[in-house]
Design a protein that fits this description.
The protein has helices at 3-24, 31-53, 59-85, 89-116. It starts with a helix and ends with a helix. The chain is mainly α and 120 residues long.
């Protein structure tokens, strides 16, 4: 299985688990859906970018920029989007942070497998 396929499987697994958590947690909607959606939209291309950079000279730069973009997305959600919508911040931000963390674990696992297999 290629690194891209592994990443897509992990992305789908996190999306499915996140959706199940939002559906079954009382009071998580609609904020939980927004948090999950933003996490997937932000993380999917960033993770792909990092996986592509594994083993190259630009890896550290790509990883650092990705982390800054994730932090900026979290800050914008906390300070701009959630107050503008008038929603409770907990469902949105907890779902966003949880999904970003889970997707970072997937990204790290795929990068580690790619690097340890010597395919880079």
């Amino acid at each position: 299985m290629t690194a891209g396929a592994r990443y897509l499987v992990g992305l789908g697994l996190v999306a499915a688990l996140g959706a199940a958590a939002v559906r079954t947690t009382p009071g998580a909607r609609p904020g939980g859906w927004l948090g999950l959606f933003v996490a997937l939209v932000v993380q999917a291309p960033l993770g792909w970018w990092v996986i592509d950079a594994v083993g190259t000279e630009r890896f550290t730069l790509v990883w650092a920029l990705g982390m800054l973009i994730r932090l900026a997305a979290l800050g914008l959600m906390a300070l701009v989007a959630v107050p503008a919508l008038g929603w409770r911040p907990e469902p949105v931000l907890l779902t966003l942070v949880g999904a970003l963390f889970a997707l970072l674990v997937v990204e790290g696992a795929v990068a580690w497998m790619e690097y340890s297999n010597g395919t880079v």
